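Why predict the complex rather than its parts? Because the way molecules touch one another can change local conformation, and only a joint prediction can capture that. The input here totals 887 residues.
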Amino acid sequence: MAKTAQWRKIHPPPPPPAQQQSEKPHEPKPETEQFPLPTILTYPSSTPPTLITQGAEARLYKTTYLLPSLPAALKYRPPKTWRHPVLDARLTRHRILAEARVLTRCRRAGVPVPAVYAVDEGAGWLAMEWIGGPPARAAINEWLKRRKEEEGGEGRAVPVTGKEERDKQLVALMRRIGSAVGRMHGVGVVHGDLTTSNMMLRPWEKGREPANGYAATGEGVGDGLLDGDIVIIDFGLASQSTSDEDRAVDLYVLERAFASTHSRAEALFTATLESSYKETFKQAPVVLKKLEEVRMRGRKRSMIG
Amino acid sequence: MASPSDSQTASSLIETIQLEHVPSSYTVLVGLFKDVSNAEFLQQQLLGRNSEYEYAFIDASSVISRIQVLAAVYKAITIHMSGSMKTPNVHSEIVCSLSPNNNISEAYRRFGITPSSSKHLIIVKVLTPLPAITTTTTSSSPLTPQAVHQHLFANVKGTPTPFTDEVLQSGLTDWAKVRKYYKLNGVGWLDSIKDESLRRREAEVLVLGSMALRSL
Amino acid sequence: MAKQHPSGPLLSIGCEGSANKLGIGIISHDPTTGKSSILANIRDTFVSPPGTGFLPKDTARHHRAFFARVARAALAAAGITRPEKQLSCVCYTKGPGMGAPLQSVAVAARTIALLWDLPLVGVNHCVGHIEMGREITGADDPVVLYVSGGNTQVIAYAERRYRIFGETLDIAVGNCLDRFARTLAISNDPAPGYNIELLARKSSGRVLHDLPYAVKGMDCSFSGILTAADLLAAQMREQEARIAAGEVVKEEDRITPEDLCYSLQETIFAMLVEITERAMAHVGSNQVLIVGGVGCNERLQEMMGQMAKERGGNVYATDERFCIDNGIMIAHAGLLAYETGFRTPLEDSTCTQRFRTDEVYVKWRD
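Output of the joint prediction:
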């Protein structure tokens, strides 16, 4: 990298080489756009694998496992060329295993997460149950949009308080979220990246709804839009922890993510989350107290100056 | 043993399965034989390393579904491809892949063939790609699926039966054993599921998870 | 207050002394062309003997002793004969950094401001690094990795602030390297980190000692790594003693300073590149700018470059004149603030050891 490290004369600062190149037409696309498949996915299958997401360290493919009829999600951590190969192999192995262990731990304890199908930590992949349905984030946003249209769509959006009859479905969904998070924390797992994008809304099977009373039936906005089981996904940053601080940070991240993506229902969410979290997790009061601290800290961080 | 006149229909009871994401040079053959009477003989052939009897003999009472067996086959094939087998061949790897832990002899005992308890057997044959350097011994001509069918029908004394979840569920699975092997006894929420098919499906994914995390 | 014709170039002097470097720089901004010119960038470093770190008291004494000399050299290099007429403001580092050295330089800056009757501009040291890095490299809106003896932060700009996405949870990466240099009793001249880099280059690269890799989301931690590296160094000394006593130690079991430095660099730089990549993915950027003294390290630049290339982007880094603490970055960032009307009244011209990057309101960017 000695080249880019060279000091460039200050007047006038010349555009960096990459910018000059990117202005050229027909420039070959950056390497990031032609991901080579992990070896395992190069072997024949009934349908070709599809790249679903590309994160900083992992790619998620939709593919099949064993039979054409069994859809699966394959998470692949490609090697990082910039990292020492020994270190890279060690980290990849460790992280694939950690994620698989956390998932199986949750699943055995009845926490709604994808089941683990197969693991090859040496090759850096993990195959999981495919979870159908939209991410909760998309469903909630669509629901809020329809509700706004119902209001007439004019003027400023007023906060959704949950007091109205038509908001029952949203409240029920929030309760399912709080309950799922509480159960996860209860088995000693913290997620590390809780957002409504990392929760799927898996459709209920033919009229089978949860028996815990969290399914709101009846009239409401966007009929059935918010139906389904919450399944928490992407445990790439998860860890096994029983620390109240870690749990509180998990809730704080979720709260902040919710505030930024569904700001109209923020206050309702906080209240509903807390009450349903308490119902499924015994130590909730301690964690919620800690959450107050974390909130103060977080606010202070961004407010000073 | 199937009589020669039945061989045409019986032959279709040994399935050839093309697993997803497995090189086409691998061929997987699976069959279920009920009421096997010569388990002791078959186990002797295994112990004696008789290469003609190189099969995965799986005790059907430890199996709850097709997927469970196929997952073990898939895992064994990936291990075979990576060259990191810990047992003599891909077939013994299959039996071990059913186990939720790394204890090889325990895996053979629990999931493999035992003369005393194995009444019904799931038999798997994986035809692997030829090694790059073949020895010049005359007997090393590649096996065909037909040859495997014939050999099984001639030597396994039992009733070929379709290898389906329904058949497994018709009393072949020993749930007490499965629950013990895969530590499902402490899982309270599983027992509280009323819907039987849903309960079986949940048990299946727990079993798959245990198998996947074997040795880890 | 400004003593120039309104359209002429604005000049500022910057005084930096938050750690063991005393730097004074003079920059010129041309308001019509938007061009900057570096007129002077003089530095004097307090180097402590091998095996020791620089103490606040001694460092402050160094800064006080050298301030007038360095300031004169800067003025001479810039050809400034009448600073009270030619300069617009006096910029100084308000923080973060070591208390005593910061104070010494703040007092000196106040003195020249009063002497020349110029307004003062207090500058956040980290913002100084970021702005200078952007100016020098032309990186427009990069994710910034700020790595030095006192700071380890991953920063991205949003809504008028440099937001901290990730940071160290304990000691700074440069501090980790400096302290390990002390453990090995490597020279602090010109900088302990540079000498670690030279040793690491001599390693065969075949041995990678197992050091704890501590990344948590976008944050990281270095104290555990330092402890582990120190333990290995102790084992190495024990080995050396056994060899001196005539014992035979197999070649492949030998622990060497070169391999230790190599392993330390490979591990901590991998952590830095990883958290930077995560921040880049988070904000959707493919530019990365490395600033701060550790940013001079070519292995870090190389690793970061590979990562950025795989993401279809680029790494931007500067050489030791700008990476290492200097006065010009304070002059530059201070002048940017000055141009938006920012002043630090004399009574507020204090300094502070803690001063977070995200506390500064960045009025000069959109």
